[in-house]
Structures are given as structure tokens and as C-alpha cells.
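Revision sheet: C-alpha cells.
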Amino acid sequence: MRVTQTMISNNMLRSLGSSYSKLDKYNEQLSTGKKISRPSDDPVIAMKGVYYRSDVTQVEQYKRNLSEGYTWTESSDDALDKVTQALQRMRELAVNGSSETNSVESRQALAAEVKQLITHLGSIGNTQVGDKYIFNGLDTTQQPINMTVTTSAVDGQITLSGTFPTSTTYNPFQVEVSRGVSVAVNTDPNNIFDQTTLNQLVSLHNGLQTNNTAAIDNAIGDLDKVLNSVLTARTKIGATENRIEMIDDRLGSQEIIANRIMSDNEDADIEKVITDLKTQESVHNAALGVGARIIQPTLLDFLR
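Predicted:
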């Protein structure tokens, strides 16, 4: 086969184009830090990258869910801490009021404070995280307690009316913290904010208001039961927080592993890329030198 100058030039240009393409590839890897910039560069790496990136995104979402879980449990524990303080104050008032040395007026003064504490407990029961009520199960948009305190004009006794949490309406609010794993992060308001429990506190007020020492003594026992219910609820919150912390630690490890695997799959080996780039530059310069010698002769050169 006859080889012409045109064929030599075309082959040289095609080879130089291929060399430029490799230089561009190495420069792109060096500037982006990635092995590929489009799926067509390496479909296998691109497909694996989709799965690995999905794993990283999933772990990050679970960590955001855990953040919400922390907010709910910490807010619930803080609210129940305020409930504990109010109940302990009521018990102090009840013990004080049970003393025979108290006059009718002094017991009525204690009753006035108990009334304020009952109203305070109702407001704690409507605690919100953001715009969500934390003591109303799944119905987080509905205020759990709509309480009205009515005072009798005859003897000063009070009664409660309105809506309160019930055992039949409570469903736990759960957050997904891992694939197929959910954790309940709210607190059951029954035996704390339900109407029966609050009416036991009302009995203390009415006993103090009417100078009924028997009712006051009974109310002390009821207060102890309510305090035990609050303590049990706070214990469950503590157990939930411990579980969330362990899951958070495990997700942290999974996030590190997922990011490392994704990096191994997608990130370029910079040292290797620099070496390949310099090698390709040497090859390209050599090709340019050879090409310059090939296309240098003209017809006049052969006529000399």
C-alpha cells in the first residue's frame, strides 16, 4: 500500500487529538478530584456511585431524624421536671395544711396557691416543640388540654371542665432512626395530665378551701401516686435518650464508612493523576516533535 504525505499527516493529527483528549481527562480529574465527570466515562463507577450516594443520603436523613428525637425527649423531660417541681410544692402545701395548728384562713391561702399550680400544670401539658404538641400522641396539631377552672361562689371550691388526654386517644409519636426501626419519642400523658389525675389535685384544693383535713390527708397519698407516675415517665424518657445516643453513635460510624466507600469509588488518586499527566505531557511533546519532522519536507526539499 502506498503511503502518502496526507495519510501521514492525518494519522499524526488523529494521534495528537487522542493525546489532547487524554491530557484533558487528566486535567479534569485533577481539577475536580473525581475519577469521572459523566456516566459515559465509566458506567460501572457511575452506577456504584448512585448506590453509595444513596446510602450516605439515607444515613444523613436518619441523623436528622435523631436530632428531632433529641428535641422531643429533652423537651418532654424538661416539661416533666417542671411538673415534678409543681407537684412537690403541692405536697409541701398539703403537709403544711394537714397540721392542726392551721386556721381556716391559712388553709384557704394555701388553697389559692394550689389553684394556681393546677392551672400551671395545664399549661405545661400544652408544651410545644416548634408547632407540635408533645403530650398528645400522634395528633400533634391539636392542643391536648383545654381546661376551664370554675370557682363556686358559695364555698370557693373549684371544678375542672374541658378536654383532656385519654388513654383511648393516645398513640406514640415515632421517628424512624434506621431502616425498619422507629423509636417513640413522646410521653404518655395519662396519669399525669388526664382529667382524673387533675381532679385528684382539685380535691386537695377543695379540702384546703373547706378546712377538710381528711380530704387533705387523702390528697397527700394521691400526690405521691402522681409523683411516681411522673418519675416512671421520666425514667422511660431517659431510657429512650440512651437508646437514641447508641443509635446516633452507630449512625456516625455508618456515615464514616459510607463516605469512605463512596470516596474510594469516585475520588481520583491525585498522586497517580499527576504522574499520569506528566507522563502524557512527555508523550505528547514527543509526538509533536516527531510530527514536526514528518510534515517538514515539501516538494522543494525533494528537488534540491
